[in-house]
Each structure stands twice: as structure tokens, then as C-alpha cells.
TrEMBL record:
Designated gene of the protein: trpA
Protein known as: Tryptophan synthase alpha chain
Organism: Roseofilum casamattae BLCC-M143
Keyword Lyase: yes
Known partners and oligomeric status: Tetramer of two alpha and two beta chains.
List of catalytic residues: E50 (proton acceptor), D61 (proton acceptor)
Pfam families for the chain: Trp_syntA (PF00290)
């Protein structure tokens, strides 16, 4: 049973290096481009890659990722086509892939069938932003049994008790949402992040990844200096991929990685 995300963090920790986790939306502008983007990010320094499955009602996503999901859905992208593409590409990737999807498509398919299919496609982890801790057990155990690590999110508004409960259950790492609200590139990283990292550190030794609002190499460096084990970058990459293409996100990924080391 491989737990590829945990293994990746173990390896990086032994090198005293943080993880870079870029996010892209599957199917924007099309799945062939997504396949190339995954391979490019993998080559240019991504340690883990988050792959968003487009969804019609994306509560946690800001305008950039919502627009990407809408374009992907209009082109007919669905879970089946995303998994088919990932199944072709994943054998060539060093970086583990985390699928980012809302709970409804999982429920619709059935948890066991969904998990079996994403394992077959080569996914290593899962983020389900609208799945509250109280209901996460139904997916945490069957996922763990298949080597899929379910990463839970900590919001900036979470109480100490809640942070402790989430940290205990989260697999792979803890995803710290740096701002209240939706994803999106911002001009600066929320100043509460160092305190939040420390709060999580006080209750767990699991790795902490910080996401939402990180859009520049300087932000990535700052978050690492504050003590994060991973930097998650979404909207800034999704926008570049849509406007400038695959080569541009490769260069951007390289720049982020250099800033973090």
C-alpha cells in the first residue's frame, strides 16, 4: 500500500525542502493541454500536483478557477474523461496527483466505485472542499484502505479544538486555507498565516500546506519562511495556462520552486 503524498513529504523533510503544489483545472482549455500541463509541471519542479475536476457549482473557487471550470464543462469535460486522461499520463509522472472534486460527483457514483476508479487512474490523494469533518469518516477509511490520502482543510476561522480534530483526521498533510472566502490570486498573503501555522504546529507534526491567494514567487518564499511545509498555487497558474499556454506555467513553476529553495 503506497501513501505517495506522505512519502513525498518524508523525502522532502529529510532534505529540509518545502513542497510546491501547483493546481490546474482539468479540461481547460482541453484535456490534451491538461495532459501536457501535468507533464510540464512535473518536469519543472512540482512535488505534488492538484488536479481540479470541473464542477458546475464550485463553492470554494474564485472567479479564475470558476471560469476555467465553466469553459471545461462547456467543452464536455466530465469525471470519466478526466480519469481517462489521467490514466494515460500518470505512469509518466514523478509527482503524486491529488484530485480536487466536490462531494456530489463522489456520492452520485458511489464512494467505493469512485475510489476504485481514481486509484486505477493513478491518483494518490483527494481534496473534497465541501465535505465537513463530521461527514468525512465515510470516505477517509475506504480511501486509506486503497492508499488514497484524503487531505482536509483548515479555515482561518477554525477554533483550536476544530484544528486539532481536523489535524488528527487529515491524511498526507493539512491544507491551511490562508483567507476566509474563495480562491484567487491576491497582491499579498494574509498576515494571519504565521499564527495559524503555529496554531496547527502546536497540535500536530503532520506537514502543513498553505493555499488560496499565493500568486508570486515572493509569496511562496514568505510562506516557507513562516514555516509552511508546502505552498499551493492555483489561480495564478490556471490564469497563465488559459492566457499564455503550457510553456508559461512551466517557467512560472520553475520560478516558484527557485524562490522557495
Amino acid at each position: 500500500m503506497t501513501h505517495a503524498i506522505s512519502q513525498c513529504f518524508d523525502r522532502l523533510r529529510s532534505q529540509h525542502a518545502p513542497a510546491l503544489i501547483p493546481f490546474i483545472t482539468a479540461g481547460d482549455p482541453d484535456l490534451e493541454t491538461t495532459a501536457k500541463a501535468l507533464q510540464t509541471l512535473d518536469r519543472q519542479g512540482a512535488d505534488i500536483i492538484e488536479l481540479g475536476v470541473p464542477y458546475s457549482d464550485p463553492l470554494a473557487d474564485g472567479p479564475t478557477i470558476q471560469a476555467a471550470a465553466t469553459r471545461a464543462l462547456e467543452r464536455g469535460t466530465n469525471l470519466d474523461s478526466v480519469l481517462e486522461m489521467l490514466g494515460r499520463v500518470s505512469p509518466n509522472l514523478k509527482a503524486p496527483v491529488i484530485l480536487f472534486t466536490y462531494y456530489n460527483p463522489i456520492l452520485y457514483r458511489g464512494i467505493d466505485r469512485f475510489l476504485d476508479e481514481i486509484v486505477t487512474a493513478g491518483a494518490s490523494g483527494l481534496v473534497v472542499p465541501d465535505l465537513p469533518l463530521e461527514e468525512a469518516q465515510c470516505i477517509l477509511e475506504p480511501a486509506a484502505a486503497r492508499g488514497i490520502e484524503v487531505v482536509l482543510l483548515v479555515a482561518p476561522t477554525s477554533s483550536t479544538e476544530r484544528i486539532e480534530a481536523i489535524a488528527k483526521q487529515s491524511q498526507g498533510f493539512i491544507y491551511l486555507v490562508s483567507v476566509t472566502g474563495v480562491t484567487g490570486a491576491r497582491t499579498q498573503v494574509a498576515t494571519r498565516v504565521p499564527d495559524l501555522i503555529q496554531q496547527i504546529r502546536n497540535v500536530t507534526d503532520k506537514p502543513i500546506g498553505v493555499g488560496f491567494g499565493i500568486s508570486q514567487p515572493d509569496h511562496a518564499r514568505q510562506v516557507v519562511n513562516w514555516g509552511a511545509d508546502a505552498v499551493i498555487v492555483g489561480s495564478a497558474i490556471v490564469r497563465r495556462l488559459a492566457e499564455e499556454g503550457v510553456e508559461s506555467i512551466g517557467q512560472f513553476c520553475q520560478g516558484l520552486k527557485e524562490a522557495m529553495s
